[in-house]
User: What shape does this take?
Amino acid sequence: MTSKIWGGRFSAGPAAIMEEINVSVGFDQRLAKQDLHGSRAHCTMLVAQGIVSKEDGDAIQEGLTRIEKEIISGNFLFKRALEDVHMNIESRLADLIGAPAGRLHTARSRNDQVATDFRMWVRAALETLDEEVRKLQSVLIDKAEVHAGTIMPGFTHLQTAQPVTFGHHLMAYVEMFGRDRGRLIDARTRLNECPLGAGALAGTSFPINRALTAEKLNFDRPMANSMDAVSDRDFALEFMAAASILAVHMSRLAEEMVNWSSVQFGFIRFTDAFSTGSSIMPQKRNPDAAELVRGKSGRVFGGLFALLTVMKALPLTYSKDMQEDKEIVFAAFDTLELCLAATAGMVDDMKPDVERMRGSAGSGYATATDLADWLTQALNIPFRESHHITGKIVKLAEGKGCDLADLSLEEMQAAEPRITKDVFKVLTPEASAASRTSFGGTAPDNVRKQAEAARARFLTLGKAP
Ligand code: ARG
Assistant: This one.
């Protein structure tokens, strides 16, 4: 059997394997809503321009409404033999209204049709992700505020560096996710031009009104070049790039949760809601959700690379290669939705062991920088020399197997005679964190202010970061 829709010049139907490789309706039916929306706008424009009669236009709109109901109620039968979502809908329209259905595809090609549908889908996906990242930021800010004064060790090279607050650490992720939202919104702005009316590639001889369809579909304007309109997939690549960076950020937070919840760190504990057991080791409480967020990031990066490779060196304009774009984007979206919800759930669930974090921040010479700073601030010793003196004192403490604060004043003075007992005031992790009052620093008061400012910057609805 030849295709009803494009089979005019064919005398035989496709080989089974041809149909198998060509068919996309299994996945592109996710574009059904956008396809109906696009068809409605196109039909309205055709009538407004006098290209299709009002009568036929009304019949088409009515048929599309019936199809929409069938799809929503799950009664629409998608047929693989009809290849894709576009031809399934058009064919059903013909079943329902007969001859006028044949007028809908006037001045339109599947090339501009799919580009329009997919843009609208990605636009909605960007908006959904923006909102979900916003929710994650909200949970992080709440937690950060509660723990604005909770002291923990900050790390560089995963070695104890300087005391920070847990709230400050969490607020770092709020900033990262804020930039992610900026990328999503930025991609949406660039995406929002309408390909419809580009036809197969060259435009059309019908007197269409592209501005009207663009407006009806909430695009800012029609795309300026018909060849670009049908062959551009930058919007999908930008989606995947922004998605990948977001996935990187989630994987970093997930990794920290895995580390922190280990017995060795013991910084946080998940309730039973976010812990899993081992089938053999009864003592285990595994952070599976965090590990999966970390692991699933790989799929998203893989998708970015797959789509870059699909598009690389593709000549203008449309090639069927581009049908491969949709599954990649759909899968990345699904993965991110899942990971964002799981991450927000874990952030809300995790309980820090405040004592243990404080204890860890008090060991490992985390306040050595504070000692060096004190030598410079109190004794006016040049910082390089202060660094050297402090190094000697750390070595001494190491030799004795104690912390800096456990050394006697005499022992300190052996390294630098001008040191006074005031030095001990700066050697606690609390004093260290509290002294970091520079803009963006870790002092608890700063963190409280940062959290408040972040609410206004990121959580106000309808406001782009
Ligand atoms: N299913 C196709 C896709 O997703 C629709 C466009 C088909 N265009 C064509 N010239 N065969 O890319």
The chain has a mean pLDDT of 95. The pocket of arginine is lined by residues 24, 28, 84, 110-111, 114, 318, 320, 322-323 (CB under 6 Å). Residues 110-146 form the longest helix (37 residues). The first strand starts at residue 151 and ends at 156.
